[in-house]
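Predict the structure of Class I SAM-dependent methyltransferase family protein.
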Amino acid sequence: MDEPCVRVDREAGEESRQVLADAGVLDDSREIVVEDGVLYIPVVDAAGVPDGFEVVARAVPDRETQTTPADVLGFEPSYERLGDVVILDEDDDERAREIADAVVASDLPVGAVLNRASKVKGELRVRDWDVLAGSSTETVHREYGCEYHLDLAEVYFSPRLATERHRVTSQVDPGERVFDMFAGVGPFVIPAAKRGAEAVGVDLNPVAVEYLRENAERNGVADRVTAIEGDVRDVAGDYGGWADRLVLNLPHTASEFLDTAVTLASEECVLHLYDIQHEDDPFGPGERAIREAFEPAYDVTVETRHVVRSYAPHEVNVCLDVRVVSA
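Done. Here is the predicted structure for Class I SAM-dependent methyltransferase family protein.
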């Protein structure tokens, strides 16, 4: 039976496999086929394959099974992977340690197993971790062709937002001026720069800014990235009217920074405002806040109202893609 596969030259095989894995579409249950210098990489969802890949249908053999944590435990545990770190979110310490032991005993390549020990807290948005296996909270995460070196104990980073970050940065055109107001280690800044934009990232967390600078070097875009440690409200005056695209990814409080966004916006600018709201009116508060800040000096057009993910019971994480044009 034919299965969807991505067809790539052998030389691009490993990089392509990693991009497909980061996008969550790699089919680990089937073997990669090599034929006449071409690789056929099985995928689980042809529609989810990132732009730029050729998808074909062909027969591929099943992969020999490997031991998974579920094989060891007898049930399917819930976990995330970030680089070689496995992340758990278990309230029961005994269950968390049982899962960690199973992860280590499985065939998963793993450097550490961490369990969330607190919620994201403070203005630097970090959390506490219980290290259940391994010794380091530092890792290198690969996502849509970019690499991010980071320390989970020192910075905020969510692997769950990979698809959303790709959705936004895929809109960036060469020559754009992109400003990330809460940049972290660079998951919006780096891919924007790789697409040919000039990108500025600001963050209060000095460790995140150091990682951002390192990641710009790591991904070959240091010449197009400016990393600034500080409060974006203090930085905005140096970039007045500069930004063609603004990322405001600080759910719960991003709307409080819209006056700063007005300062930064060029005569025509696209905003990506992230918000967390009740499911009964997920977009209204953010849209009203944007209009209050930008009108009447700008014409405001909401281009996309997008639900990113469920956040809590009856609450959703959303993004508003909004174009503002000087009136």
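The first strand starts at residue 2 and ends at 9.
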